[in-house]
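so my prof wants the structure for this chain in the tokens format not the other one, which i didnt know existed until like an hour ago. anyway here's the sequence
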Amino acid sequence: MAKIPLTKESEFIVGEEKVLNYIMTAFFMAIFLYGLIDAVKRHFINIDYQSFVFAFALVPAIYCFRRAHSRRVYIRVNKTGIYKDEQLVTGWSTLLNAFITQKEKTGIFNIVDNFILVVEFTKDGSPEGFRRKIPLTNTQNKSEEEVLEAVKFFWSVYRKEAGK
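here's what i got, hopefully its the right format
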């Protein structure tokens, strides 16, 4: 998919990666069907534990399929500010800083990336700054770098127009 250049009137939208979720759905459905075929071959008599385990693959298959059909917008960045789940986190006039970091998780088998977008901002009437952590999913359709690039682009457009 070609990268669309940002303009000051455009929007940067982070949603679910549809193709990946369809692939995961097909994978889990194949596992489920393998278990079902095994149970049918045995005429549902003397079914071993493998068929039951494979049958449970239907649950993640349905989950992945629902995510593939989801129209949820995780993050929206546009000329008015940064939104998480269609809720305004901050406008450009109150933004102090934005950066990507990784959430530290301990454990032996921790192989998953846990990237988060950290947005530092002020609120009207409050002298102190606030920090909001927005998790970036592993199945989103935009990379972490693209998200940060979009934030920096729109923030710089705001600062140019505001003369800052």
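also thought this was worth mentioning. Residues 77-162 form one domain.
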